[in-house]
Design goal:
The protein is an alpha/beta fold. The chain contains three helices and four strands. It has a single domain (11-108), classed as 3-Layer(aba) Sandwich (Rossmann fold), CATH 3.40.50. The longest helix has 21 residues, at 55-75.
Length: 113
């Protein structure tokens, strides 16, 4: 786990469904205001965009984004799961399992179901 030093702010990675994009954005705002470096999903594949306009492009991008997010989890000091209504989808569940295997502390914005 990366060591937080006086020279570096703690790093938090946000995990959660992009169906809650606004909640992810709000969590990033609060974490940043608290003095933490925030790593978060960078693409919302649920919204139309030319980068993922075809099923082939979307599949290729999804695979790359999943790998990129695992790397963000590796870099982070801790994980914050953004889970309005207690919702945790399959992708987020896999990210939580991965973070646990790495020994990352995990917290949630809402109680889990």
């Amino acid at each position: 786990m990366p060591a937080t030093t006086p020279d570096r702010a703690p790093i938090v990675v946000l995990c959660g469904s992009t169906r809650y994009w606004d909640a992810l954005t709000e969590a990033a705002l609060y974490e940043t205001a608290a003095g933490r470096i925030v790593l978060a999903p960078g693409c919302n594949l649920k919204e139309p965009h030319p980068l993922w306009a075809t099923p082939q492009k979307a599949d290729r991008l999804k695979t790359m984004l999943d790998d990129l997010h695992r790397q963000k989890i590796q870099l982070a000091d801790r994980v914050l799961v953004v889970n309005p209504d207690g919702y945790i989808g399959e992708s987020t569940r896999q990210e939580i399992d991965y973070a646990r295997r790495l020994g990352k502390p995990i917290s949630y914005t809402h109680p889990t179901r």
